């Protein structure tokens, strides 16, 4: 029972003499109280408020200083506890007894555990479980090896080390090893956010491999734990009951909360935030899920994590939850767990040197084994060596999950204070090492570029071609659809279209990305995009079974639009981005629209894109000419050689799979042969060999060579193609010293189109011929 708010012991009516009465002073009446018997720090509430204020001030002050030394936030949070604890200020007489007494620890621990519940919930919200099915062989290989090998190594270490330790130390070593082989997704994702490499090839690979490893280890721990209970003598009926209850809770949390989340999303208008009532309801569900999971025998944080996992990530629900809760949880409640651990440390105690030597040996051997189990498979999977090392340091990082596990073991007295102190020190050391090393070796100029092939040339014809089609206006959408129609969509070679409607941010303070495929209510923002949505969905219905379409609207400042485009292409693993040209023509061939802002957007996308890019110069509506009983669309590919021309030819070959498209490849050959890159020459020959064979067997493919001596002759051939083709495709980049472009490359006005693309997009051309300038994915 608790006392009244003033802490006085007043006998309640009907209270008998045998009742137990505990004086728990909650808060004082302040300076004006008639009773001066107690210091205000003897009351729980003001003492807790002062504790929280001190923790926040010391933590933030340390972080301001240590971040200049590239120290992660976790160091500041734990060190704040060390400073306020027994090691430093605790040496002042009566400091700990007055400000951090033992009876007050329960309140800090309670708040820290509530913060940890919500931290795990938000980690689940940010996680995309579908990533497991989308990842390739690299992520599966690295994720599984990073779990299986450390577990095997841990078992071997446990057997060899336990024989040298007294009985009371052995359970602690087993507990330590069971935590060391974990690769917790929340820790890795938080590290990637701090390092600002979440949306990179390396970050995506680390997330996917970590997710696979985390889910694998969690599933294995769940099943092995139940088997172990049977092994040590628990009744099989009781074990079966625990197993069934746990499995039922997991299924209910995932499926019921998923259904509820989808209902909330559908009831939220497009572009509008989720109502505060739903956020409060979900917050209550987080606490309820922790109670349920704790009572069925699972770890209390597993329920909130599974609840978050069932919430669809991104807007509107996932992003709203993160936006509303992130600051409070990560900035206030999250550090409490770290700081409360630091308060329990005492670095001045004399340790058992022999045992500490054994413990540190176990820690570093297990960490080194985990590092090697990530590095070797990454190198075998052809991840560049520099990225393989960075990936290994990322995935061995430790943080709040390990600290929570060690604190739980300490509270249950599975480990003693010496072991607990050494383990927290190891977490700080490994976390700092990972953060600093990755900052030093990662190339931050590669935000979206990477080493995974995302282009048309390396996309098999019988696999799905993923295209991001960008549009600023309805004419752009129609032009993109006409281009996609001739891209030979078929059931055996489907095309996935991610249509992105780009809208300038006006009247809002924050950017917005709307997914129109979530079934939300229409809103004013959604209605403005409705015509474009209808156009793309009509195309999808017309190409039923061979084309899938997802429509998005991105509202942002025009100077940031390239980030929206590149981010969507990266998230969807697109092979090519189709951008509209910044100029528009009317039916008379006159330029009626010219935007330097949109031109800058295109140039920035070309610089940052994670895949191939094509700028579509659309001068007319698609026109089919009759050829027998079929309609044919004439496509010409101007081939000089190089990566971009090979990409343009690969796209042209895909179009030619449809008999309604007639493809002509015109190769320009220099009269005077100059020194060229031998590897490029080999690749050009191999690429053209296939098209030469097809031109002799297929009526809709033609190939010819034209010999030229300089750039002006190349320009004449390009201009002559205007009359024969509906679409001309050309690569953007070529050798600077190429004789095929000598004399014209210096006079190019539109560098984003290249010399020949600039000529073909000239305002002087009055024929309604469209141009597609292609740049292959830049791999650094």
In which range does the helix fraction lie? 40-55%
Class inferred from helices and paired strands: alpha/beta
Low-confidence stretches are: 1-18, 622-630
Termini separation comes to: 67 Å
What shape does the CA trace take?
elongated
Tally of alpha and pi helices:
26
How many β-strand stretches?
14
Strand composition percent:
5-15%
Radius of gyration: 32 Å
Main β-sheet description: 12 strands, mixed
Average of pLDDT: 80
Subcellular location: Membrane
Domain Cation/H+ exchanger transmembrane: 60-428
Domain Cation/H(+) antiporter central: 496-619
InterPro entries: Cation/H_exchanger_TM, CHX17_2nd, CHX17_C, CPA2_transporter, Na+/solute_symporter_sf
Which structural traits does this protein have?
transport, alpha/beta, 780 residues, 12% strand, two-stranded antiparallel sheet, twelve-stranded mixed sheet, transmembrane helix, ion transport, elongated, potassium transport
Task: Describe what you observe in this structure.
By secondary structure, the chain is of the alpha/beta class. Strands 1, 2, 3, 4, 5, 8, 9, 10, 11, 12, 13 and 14 form a twelve-stranded mixed beta sheet that branches. Helix 10 packs parallel to helix 12 and helix 21 packs parallel to helix 22. The relative contact order is 0.08. Pfam families: CHX17_2nd, CHX17_C, Na_H_Exchanger. Its main location: membrane. It is found in: Membrane. Belongs to the monovalent cation:proton antiporter 2 (CPA2) transporter (TC 2.A.37) family. CHX (TC 2.A.37.4) subfamily.
């Amino acid at each position: 029972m608790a006392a009244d708010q003033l802490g006085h012991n007043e006998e309640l009516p009907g209270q008998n003499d045998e009742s137990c009465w505990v004086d728990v002073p909650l808060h004082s009446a302040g300076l004006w109280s008639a009773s001066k018997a107690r210091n205000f720090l003897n009351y729980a509430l003001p003492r807790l408020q002062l504790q929280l204020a001190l923790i926040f001030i010391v933590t933030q002050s340390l972080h301001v200083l240590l971040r200049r030394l590239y120290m992660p936030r976790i160091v500041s949070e734990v060190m704040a506890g060390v400073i306020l604890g027994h090691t430093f200020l605790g040496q002042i007489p009566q400091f700990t007894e007055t400000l951090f007494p033992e009876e007050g620890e329960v309140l800090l621990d309670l708040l820290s555990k509530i913060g940890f519940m919500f931290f795990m919930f938000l980690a689940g919200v940010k996680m995309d479980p579908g990533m497991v099915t989308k990842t390739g062989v690299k992520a599966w290989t690295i994720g599984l090896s990073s779990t299986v090998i450390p577990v095997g190594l841990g078992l071997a270490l446990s057997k060899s080390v336990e024989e040298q330790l007294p009985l009371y130390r052995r359970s602690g070593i087993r507990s330590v090893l069971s935590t060391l082989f974990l690769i917790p997704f929340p820790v890795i994702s938080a590290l990637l956010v701090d390092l600002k490499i979440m949306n990179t090839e390396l970050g995506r690979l680390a997330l996917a491999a970590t997710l696979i490893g985390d889910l694998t280890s969690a599933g294995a721990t769940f099943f092995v734990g139940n088997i172990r209970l049977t092994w040590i003598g628990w009744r099989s009926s009781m074990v079966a009951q625990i197993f069934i209850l746990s499995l039922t809770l997991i299924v209910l949390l995932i499926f019921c909360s998923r259904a509820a989340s989808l209902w909330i999303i559908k009831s939220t208008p497009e572009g509008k935030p989720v109502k505060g009532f739903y956020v409060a309801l979900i917050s209550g569900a987080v606490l309820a899920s922790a109670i349920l999971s704790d009572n069925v025998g699972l770890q209390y944080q597993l329920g909130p994590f599974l609840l978050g996992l069932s919430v669809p990530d991104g807007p509107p629900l996932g992003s709203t939850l993160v936006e509303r809760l992130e600051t409070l949880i990560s900035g206030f409640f999250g550090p409490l767990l770290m700081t409360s651990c630091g308060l329990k440390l005492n670095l001045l105690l004399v340790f058992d040197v022999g045992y500490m030597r054994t413990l540190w040996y176990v820690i570093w051997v297990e960490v080194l084994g985990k590092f090697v189990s990530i590095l070797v498979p990454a190198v075998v999977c052809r991840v560049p060596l520099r990225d393989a090392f960075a990936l290994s340091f990322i995935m061995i990082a430790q943080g709040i999950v390990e600290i929570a596990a060690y604190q739980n073991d300490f509270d249950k007295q599975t480990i003693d204070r010496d072991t607990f102190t050494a383990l927290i020190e190891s977490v700080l050391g490994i976390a700092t090492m990972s953060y600093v090393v990755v900052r030093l070796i990662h190339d931050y100029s590669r935000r979206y570029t990477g080493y995974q092939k995302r282009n048309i040339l390396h996309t098999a014809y019988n696999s799905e071609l993923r295209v991001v089609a960008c549009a600023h206006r309805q004419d752009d959408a129609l032009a993109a659809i006409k281009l996609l129609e001739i891209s030979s969509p078929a059931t055996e070679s489907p095309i996935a279209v991610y249509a992105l409607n780009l809208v300038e941010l006006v009247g809002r303070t924050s950017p917005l990305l709307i997914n129109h495929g979530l079934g939300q209510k229409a809103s004013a923002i959604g209605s403005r995009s409705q015509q474009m949505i209808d156009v793309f969905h009509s195309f999808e219905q017309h190409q039923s079974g061979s084309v899938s379409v997802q429509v998005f609207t991105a509202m942002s400042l025009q100077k940031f639009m390239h980030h929206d485009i590149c981010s969507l292409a990266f998230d969807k693993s697109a092979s090519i981005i189709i951008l509209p040209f910044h100029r528009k023509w009317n039916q008379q061939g006159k330029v009626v629209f010219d935007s330097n802002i949109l031109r800058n957007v295109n140039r920035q996308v070309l610089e940052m894109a994670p895949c191939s890019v094509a700028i579509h110069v659309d001068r007319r509506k698609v026109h089919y000419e009759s050829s027998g009983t079929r309609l044919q669309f004439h496509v010409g590919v101007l081939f000089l050689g190089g990566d971009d021309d090979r990409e343009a030819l690969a796209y042209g070959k895909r179009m030619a799979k449809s008999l309604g498209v007639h493809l002509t490849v015109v190769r320009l050959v220099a009269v005077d042969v100059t020194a060229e890159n031998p590897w490029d020459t080999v690749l050009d020959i191999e690429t053209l060999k296939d098209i030469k064979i097809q031109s002799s067997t297929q009526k809709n493919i033609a190939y010819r060579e034209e010999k030229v001596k300089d750039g002006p002759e190349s320009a004449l051939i390009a201009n002559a193609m205007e009359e024969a083709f509906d679409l001309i495709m050309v690569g953007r980049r070529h050798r600077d010293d190429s004789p095929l472009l000598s004399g014209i490359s210096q006079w190019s006005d539109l560098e984003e189109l290249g010399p020949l693309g600039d000529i073909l997009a000239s305002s002087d051309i009055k024929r309604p011929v469209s141009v597609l300038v292609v740049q292959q994915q830049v791999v650094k």
